[in-house]
Structures are given as structure tokens and as C-alpha cells.
UniProtKB/TrEMBL annotation:
<dbReference type="InterPro" id="IPR017261">
    <property type="entry name" value="DNA_mismatch_repair_MutS/MSH"/>
</dbReference>
<dbReference type="InterPro" id="IPR000432">
    <property type="entry name" value="DNA_mismatch_repair_MutS_C"/>
</dbReference>
<keyword id="KW-0067">ATP-binding</keyword>
<dbReference type="InterPro" id="IPR036678">
    <property type="entry name" value="MutS_con_dom_sf"/>
</dbReference>
<comment type="function">
    <text>This protein is involved in the repair of mismatches in DNA. It is possible that it carries out the mismatch recognition step. This protein has a weak ATPase activity.</text>
</comment>
<dbReference type="InterPro" id="IPR005748">
    <property type="entry name" value="DNA_mismatch_repair_MutS"/>
</dbReference>
<feature type="domain" description="DNA mismatch repair proteins mutS family">
    <location>
        <begin position="698"/>
        <end position="714"/>
    </location>
</feature>
<dbReference type="InterPro" id="IPR007696">
    <property type="entry name" value="DNA_mismatch_repair_MutS_core"/>
</dbReference>
<dbReference type="Pfam" id="PF05192">
    <property type="entry name" value="MutS_III"/>
</dbReference>
<keyword id="KW-0234">DNA repair</keyword>
<dbReference type="Pfam" id="PF05188">
    <property type="entry name" value="MutS_II"/>
</dbReference>
<dbReference type="Pfam" id="PF05190">
    <property type="entry name" value="MutS_IV"/>
</dbReference>
<dbReference type="InterPro" id="IPR007860">
    <property type="entry name" value="DNA_mmatch_repair_MutS_con_dom"/>
</dbReference>
<dbReference type="InterPro" id="IPR007695">
    <property type="entry name" value="DNA_mismatch_repair_MutS-lik_N"/>
</dbReference>
<dbReference type="Pfam" id="PF01624">
    <property type="entry name" value="MutS_I"/>
</dbReference>
<dbReference type="InterPro" id="IPR045076">
    <property type="entry name" value="MutS"/>
</dbReference>
<keyword id="KW-0238">DNA-binding</keyword>
Amino acid sequence: MMAQYLELKASYREALLFYRMGDFYEMFFEDAVAAAEALDIALTKRGKHDGADIPMCGVPVHAAEGYLLTLIRKGFRVAVCEQMESPAEAKKRGYKAVVKRDVVRLVTPGTLTEEALLEARRHNYLAAFVEVRDASALAWVDISTGAFHVMPLPTVRLAPELARLAPSELIVSEAKERELFDIVSDFGLALTGLARSAFDSSAAEKRICDIYKVGTLEAFGSFTRAEVSAMGALIDYLEITQKGRLPLLKPPQREAEARNVQIDAATRRNLELTHGLNGGRAGSLLSVMDRTVTAAGARLLERRISSPSRVIETIQSRLQAVAHAIENQRRTETIRDLLRNVPDLDRALSRLSLDRGGPRDLAALRDGLIQAEHISVTLDNPEMPSLLREARAGLAVHQSLIDLLDQALVAEPPLMLRDGGFIAPGYDAELDEARQLRDEGRGVIARMQQDFVSDTGISSLKIKHNNVLGYFIEVTATHGDKMLSPPLSERFIHRQTTANQLRFTTVELSEMETRILNAGNLALEIEKRLYENLKTTILESAAEIGVTSAGMAEIDLAAALAHLAKEQNWVMPKVDTSRAFKIVGGRHPVVEAALTQNSGTPFIANDCDLSASEDAASVWLLTGPNMAGKSTFLRQNALIALMAQIGSFVPAESAHIGAVSQLFSRVGASDDLARGRSTFMVEMVETAAILNQADDRALIILDEIGRGTATYDGLSIAWATLEHLHDVNRARALFATHYHEMTALAGKLPGVENATVAVKEWEGDVVFLHEVRKGAADRSYGVQVAQLAGLPAPVIARARIVLEALEQGEREGGATQKTLIDDLPLFSAAPPPMPTAPAKPSAAETLLEKIIPDELTPREALEMLYKLKEAARA
């Protein structure tokens, strides 16, 4: 057995080998040591190898999915080795024959399909990037849903696209693995290198044509060599990991960068589009917007947030669908109730195609298609927008398949195929008979006994059973002669005589005994055969079911966005090809939701107008203190633009947005120590990316450019950056700064306007009004904010002195300023006294505490005065 293990392991050196032994997956040698540590399970030993103990650990087969998930999340790959025959079959080859085993699957982060291993509301993408001469491309697939996409992609755009797609695993050529490591290292994905042969475009085209059974790829569109190579590499890798059993893949769809808003990784992170700062969904735009009730609808929403559209017709059709759902609110809520009962059809289909499905996947498809019919009837309205009409068109086209599944399946099937009992009674006569024998064997024997009594005329005849003879017919010795004489002797075969009874059998009784004994296995085998037939029928309709699932996802998303807009009082934005950007009463959706949930405090809405003429810049230079809401204002306008181009209503009183081509955000401060980058360096790298890429249709939000270096250096960089945005990029931008000197640019650059976040000072404290107004801030109120943060009082007092001196120097000129700074005394505030324990109350104070004047008589009051005087002396 160990020789077999080592032979299999030699082919999968980079993976842990789950070696099936009965009800357990066992691991040995280094695999066992690594797995025991990663899974926190016991490490034991089994036998010896080269004179040393062999480490071993194992996990139960029935609980393997949970352990697999842990291992995958910790960066392992797992080769699953199954028994290809039973021990009984192996023994037929010899007493010491080893059960045949083989690896049936290589589990990697990008090839998961099991429900327990995946997040239902997120895609799990496997991507491949390839460079062919002067061209490159990215392809990606979700084998759990069959989604398959490809796009031409220059290497410089790889990081932004990985940020958009968030794949679990990226396939590259082994020759490029090290070169691309730095680009992908920030995304926490598994990087897998394949041999160059996997990226051969000629072989790739044949592989793709073979799986779709077409003669040419022209039916799917026109693809470059690089795109074909990337798609072929994905299919090659799937053949390796799935051991030749390919998932059900939808025809490849070619995407174009120009159709989506370009958003780089830093902007996605800063705006917290699909993940909050903690890495989870909490605090993200997705978490606030997600009101979908189906898994497919949730995945569609995440795709839309990750890839807002630039195509006006697409945006408007989505907005019209949401508006129609709001106008028909009662019907929308009925549809949402129906959608809540729709299972995940895409993933059920995928599991069936990979032979990892079960009876519940059949039932999921039945239930989902039934709900699709109900939704189609509910949506029957000729006045619907085109998007909803197209989505509805693919819903009610499965009546024959629904009838078949409804007749074939019980209402609540078991999880596992091996459990049986999922085929409905009356569907298959042979199965019903086998079940009757299995479940009602005693009744079948009783009926046979009645028949034998009737045929022989012997009322005392009995059918009995023991472990030696099995079933037999027993009569008393009185009737022995009758049974042994023709014509009964021709039918009843004598088997045994005892002192008082004779025992017989018949051909039909022997056959029935065999059938009863085998009925359980026979019933299960029949169900397995029927399962395969039903699965085949379903997979023949996979394309139509995929269209139905996509249609319900589209309907779910439109209904969810309508529900959200009604609930949050959002409005329909106007989106066109102009360079308008006018938002009245805009609000930050995430901050507003947090305020409502935590304190009930209303969010202060603000206007923003960055509308610009063709080829001209429009920049708001925003000043004001920290904590006043500058960053919130910047982010909310970026999010409103993005939401509008998703096709969603927006949190505002009104919004007119000329379609944005690119969205850039430079907000927040962080370092990148692993790459030797300081906070300032990261800031400059991100700013450089914006200035080098932004076009005149971009929307840019910048916060505190230049703050990570010396004051004059920072001011110079911020000043030059704003001039470049205005003169070269000519973009629409919000530029927040504490450098008040820059407000002078509003008088020099025609596209720059000053705006400030209003505050109020009251008795030395600052009150934040969170209102954005035209004009410039007179100062930053940094000392007041420091006081709010709890800096010690001597520090605050000293800061005020230094600030006054610096401001005086600014007014009187640089030389005077230097003299004032030189004349400032060193920090000489007396240190605060050491805290001391509070003094104990005196005897007099103790007496006073006990006195209740209203209850004292004049004599008692006089006596108390004497006592107080005595206590004070003490």
C-alpha cells in the first residue's frame, strides 16, 4: 500500500495527497506533518520507512469539505485520491491485492465548486494572463457558474483588472512567474506557473473548439492570438485539475476596457467599493447596496459595482428598469417574495456537470424553474422597459423539464446520492417493486403464503425463515404424503424433514428470496440510473437554464435597487455624454447608513457642481479643518457618480452626471514597508499614476497631496499637481488641502473654485457644521482638533503660543518670523503634579455628613456645634 501511495505522491509533489482508506482520507510523511499543523489535528504514525516511523494523520471523508476549505485558505493545494474499486473486488485478484486508487481531482483556490467551500454571493474566478510577442490578454472563468470571459490587456493594466475581478488564482507562464510576482502580490491570490506549451495559441484554439464542439471560434467573436492563448491555458489547467472532466462552460464573452469605467486598485481600496478597510464586506458600498434575495443577483451586483458602465444606452436601460420597479412597487415586492425561493441554478448546474452534484441539485433546478414560471406570469406587462422584457423572455421555456423533474423527484430529496429515496413513488415501476420488496418483504411473503394455502388446500401451511435454509414452506407431518405426491411434488421441492414437520421450497419462493435480499441494492442502483438520466436531460438544456438564471438575476437586481431607493429616498440620476457634474443634496450612502444605525443622527447633505465645458477643467479646491468632513464629501461624490453608472438611483435630491471614463482617488495615508515605501512614497506613486493616466472625462478626488514631507516641499508638489490637473488632464476634480496658500489659484486658473467645510468656534472650542460652502477657510483649527483628541492642556497651550508667533511672522515677513521663532522660550510649562490619592475626610467633615438640620432640636444643635469644634481641633 505504501508503495502505491509513494507512486501517486510522486506525481503531485506540490500538493497534499488525500489518500482514501475506507472512511478516511489519510496523509503520510511531510504531508501529514504540514496538514496536522494547519488543521490542528493529531499527528500519529503508521509503520516504518527506511527504519524511521512514518508520520500519519487523517480526516473523515464525510467532513472533508471543512478541512479542505481550511487548507485552501492557508495556501495549500490538495490532490484527492479515491478508491477506484471495493476491497471485495480487489480480493478477487488475490488475497494481498491492493485496492486500486487514483487521483480524481486537484483542489486549488480557483477550482472550487462545492457549496460549503464557496461564498454564495461572490464569484470565485480562476484567471490566466499571457503575453504573446507585442500583445497580451487576460481570461477568467468561474467554474462554479460557468462564466467565461476574455479581454486584450496590456501588462500595465493587469493590476487594476485583478483588483476589479479579485480572482482566487492566476495562471501565468513559468517564465513570467517571477516577473509578475510583484504586480500580483498585493491581491492575496495564488500564483500558478504553467509550462509554455500550455499557452500555445494553435493548440489552444483546438482545445477550445473541441469543448464547444465547433469548427471555428468565429461563432463566438474575433479573438487575438493572446486571447486565444489565455483561454486555452485556462482549459488546459482545468483538464489537469479536474482530471479530464471539464465543467460546463458558457461560450467565452469578449470584454472591452472602453465599455467600463477604469478604476485602479488604490481607488477601489480608498472608496471601499466591495470590501471595507478590514477586508470584509462590512463598511463597503456593496454591503449598503445589497438588497438582492438570490445568490446570482448578489454576484451580479458585485460585478456591476466593480465594473460601472460607460455606455449611456446600457446605463439608461438599467435606470429605467429600476424606475419601473419603483412605479409598480406592489408587484415588485411580490416578485421579491418569489425570488427568495430561487436556488442557485448556475452552481447546481456546474456541480452536476462535474459529477459533484446530488439529488438536491436536481430539486434545486426543479424549484428554480418553477419559480421562474411564476415570475414570468407576474411580470407579464407589455409596458415594461426593454431590460426587463429581455430578462423575462427566457423564464417560461422549461415546462417539459419541470414536468419531468416534478414527476421524478420527491419534495425534499436527501443530500447524497448514496442515501437513495429521492425518486418519487409511481415514477418507475421497477423501482416501486424493488422498494416494495425492500420495505414490505414480510407482506409479500404473507401473500405468497395465502396463495400456497389456496393452491394446496392445507390451511396450516406456513412460510418461515432461518439463517440456514433462508425462506422455506413448512407443513405438519400429517400433510407430508400430500405434499410429496403428484401434482404438488412437481411444484414443491422437498428440503428437510424433522420429527413433526416437512419443509419445502419452490422456484418462485427461491427467486423471491433472492429478490428480497437484493431489493435494497437494486433500488439504489435503479435510482442511480434514473439520476444519471435526469442529469443528462438537464445538461442538454444547460444553455437555456443559464439564460433563465441570468434573467432572474437581472430582475432580482432591478427589484433590489428599487427597494433600496424607495427605502432610502434615493433619486434617479440623469446620465449623459456631457461633462456635467451637478449634485444637489448629495449624501454618503455608507456613512449615512452607519449614522442611522448607530445614533440616528441625520446626515448633512451637500451640493457639488463640477460641470465643465468641453476640453476645460473644473476643480473645487476644498479647505477646512480635519474632522470637518472633507474626506466624506470627496468620497460621496465619487460614489454617487459610480452608483449612477452602475444603473442605480443615488442618495441626493437630484444628480446630473456626464459619464465618467475613469475614477481616481488619492485619499488616506498608508505605507508599504514590504517594498520599502514610506507613506509619502506611496502617496506620490498613486498621484503619479493619476496624473499620467487621467483623461478629460475622468473624475478625480485628491486629499492632502504633499502632506508627508516638509511644508514648502509639500506645498510646491500640491500646487504643481493642481496646475497639471487643470492645464493638462483637464479633468473634473475635488482637491482637498490644508495649504491655504493654494486658494490663490482660484484667481489665476479659470477652472478652479474655492470651497470650504464650515465650522463654528465657541468659547475656544470648534463645532463642525459639515456644510460645504463656496469660499476659502481662514485657518485649519488644528489646535482645536488636537484639544478634542485629548492632548494634554500644557501641550495645547504651548501650541497656541507657537501658532501665534508663526502667524505673526507670516504677517510680518520671513526674517521677522525667524526672529520670533528664535526668541520663543523653550517649552517650560511646569509638569503637571503627580496624581495623589484623595485625602480622607476629616472628623469634622464626617460629622457634617451625618447631620440632618431639619431633624435637630435646639439643644441637639448646640451640642453638635461643640462636637464639631472639638473635631476641628483634633
